[in-house]
Write a structure and sequence with these properties.
Elements lengths: L6 E5 L4 H11 L6 E5 L5 E5 L7 E5 L6 H17 L4 E6 L18 H12 L3 E5 L14 E4 L2 H11 L4 E5 L5 H11 L2 E9 L5 E7 L6 E9 L3 H12 L4 E9 L3 H8 L3 E7 L12 E4 L2 H13 L10
Parallel strand pairs: 1-4, 4-5, 5-6, 6-7, 8-9, 8-11, 11-12, 12-13, 13-14
Antiparallel strand pairs: 2-3, 9-10
Helix pairs in contact: 1-8, 2-3
């Protein structure tokens, strides 16, 4: 990368606080963007400074409201491209539509691929993201993707307050790889909960593989919205003799039903990150850790043309 190119960091409206933290870590001012709406709801974006031939990083998780955040990101990318930015990196801490990554029913879309296409066509040069719901989404892009993990932020905190015999529990068979990585980093055992989804908001956990009796269990997942998977797993663990149950997720997308379900659950604490804004900590039941430092380092390494692989390590 030509280091003579100036580094700019801009933010959409989805997670301004995280963008401010990242800019502070980078020791650069957060760029000025005019972001407003026309009376009919159309989004208007204008960069308020000269970004010609610059290295631009646009921070915008595709979080609630999802379609508004996505459209805002696409318009920011297009505006930066038309302002002659040398390189545009879309920094997407949370990539929505990632659950729609395959055709598992007749006549359904692969929306994750559609979103990847939209970001590419809008003019992004590369993507920086964290804990994709499905790893293969990296291959949906025809531009470079730097895929970070929340574990280097979460694991040190978990080590601080847990002790004794730990077991990391995968919430379903698809989460075994993530749970295995957490187990290795924590020096813990591994267990798996068999899950059956009843509908979009209800989950039944029916079988448990692994020894959890008398142990502190850590349920590991990449995201939660209704908390159905986590709560069903926690109840099965407690009924199987688990001493205490915690949960770790990178993306806490809890809605009102999910927050109520978490409060009424046997989960002692939900540990998450600020990849998306968490406005309600459910009376102290949710612990939010900042990813600003790891994101800032990734941005700095990308700008300088250095490897980001060192950021995968705890």
């Amino acid at each position: 990368m030509d280091l003579s190119r100036e580094l700019f960091v801009f933010s959409g409206s989805a997670n301004m606080r995280l963008a401010e933290e990242i800019a502070l870590k980078l020791n650069v001012p957060l760029g000025m963007v005019e972001n407003r709406r026309f009376p009919d709801g159309e989004i208007f974006i204008k960069f308020c400074q000269n970004i010609r031939n610059s290295d631009i990083f646009l921070i915008q998780p595709i979080s609630h409201p999802i379609n508004e955040s996505l459209m805002e990101l696409l318009i920011m990318i297009d505006a930066a491209r038309r302002a002659s930015a040398a390189r545009i990196t879309a920094v997407i801490p949370y990539f929505a539509y990632a659950r729609q990554d395959r055709k598992d029913q007749p006549r359904v879309p692969i929306t994750a691929k559609l979103v990847a296409n939209l970001i590419t066509v809008a003019g992004a040069s590369r993507v920086l993201t964290m804990d994709l719901h499905a790893q293969q989404i990296q291959g949906f892009f025809d531009i470079p993707v730097d895929h970070l993990y929340g574990s280097p932020v979460i694991v040190p905190y978990v080590k601080e307050f847990t002790g004794g015999k730990l077991v990391v529990v995968a919430t379903d068979s698809g989460g075994v790889k993530m749970a295995h990585a957490y187990a290795d980093m924590l020096g813990a055992g591994l267990a798996v909960v068999a899950k059956r989804r009843l509908d979009a908001t209800s989950v039944e956990s029916s079988h448990l593989v692994g020894e959890v009796k008398g142990r502190v269990c850590i349920l590991a997942d990449d995201m939660t919205t209704t908390a159905g998977t986590l709560v069903a797993g926690a109840r099965l663990l407690k009924s199987s003799g688990a001493k205490e149950v915690f949960a770790v997720v990178t993306h806490c997308l809890l809605n009102a039903d999910g927050r109520k379900r978490l409060i009424d659950s046997p989960i002692s604490r939900l540990i998450t990150t600020n990849a998306v804004p968490v406005e309600d900590d459910c009376g102290g039941r949710i612990k939010v850790l900042s990813i600003a430092n790891i994101m800032a380092k990734a941005i700095r390494y990308i700008h300088e043309g250095a490897s980001v692989s060192s950021l995968f390590k705890v």
